């Protein structure tokens, strides 16, 4: 049906037989496709007779975007989800949605608007640090083409440097975009926050990604080395596969042992680590720090008090 529409846009008039021949079908099917297009609000005219045929209404200009129901739904949900997880700015997402809705047929526009306005999420929205579209697209193209890229980078200490980087991958993690690649300045694999890259220029130099290099694994390992106040080691007495599904790689490193799974993690606050451990269904043994034991006792007392608290009969 979309191919029929493209043919009608590029020809003044085509007969049913000509359209059937180009579509590899029969005249009856062409007639049915034309009726479907009319149902979508596209004015396909049909004239009988020797010089008759199908054409778009005179003066009608097709919008630049034509999507099926499933395609339109995928685009709208993708934009809404991207905004939710912090992959794009609210301004950009709202603008794109408005443009898409303007060019969709009315019969498709209203249901999609209803879905967007009624959709709810169980997780809270992430406030992301969206990078410039030009920089992100340049990095993606350089990654796919295995071309070195020169970047102007500002560190968290506000230091400005220019570096040549072999981009191995672009990773989105917890509301932020990261570039993972070989840094020629340090001669080692490094990670860079994309929102801190002020400019990116492709270079006429190719590179080869090392065998078995995984950008996601490298990023999560690098983030786990960021200094925190507490170094935590706990043995969780349960199956490693099940524990790994509950604890993402960005939260901890897991090592199978003869007594269970050794979890190594870093934490700025121990009350959050106490909540994490309490949420697991397996017993565990704390190796250090000892202060984590007190954090667990505090949490246990809070839970015990909540369990014993009687309801206020005055409340409705």
UniProtKB/TrEMBL annotation:
Pfam families according to UniProt: HTH_11 (PF08279), WCX (PF25583), WYL (PF13280)
Source superkingdom: Bacteria
Chain ranges of the Helix-turn-helix type domain: 2-55
Domain WYL stretches: 135-201
InterPro entries in UniProt: CBASS_pafABC_assoc_protein (IPR051534), HTH_11 (IPR013196), WCX_dom (IPR057727), WH-like_DNA-bd_sf (IPR036388), WH_DNA-bd_sf (IPR036390), WYL_dom (IPR026881)
Entry-linked PROSITE patterns: WYL
Domain WCX: 230-304
PANTHER family in the cross-refs: PROTEIN PAFB, PTHR34580
Name of protein: Helix-turn-helix transcriptional regulator
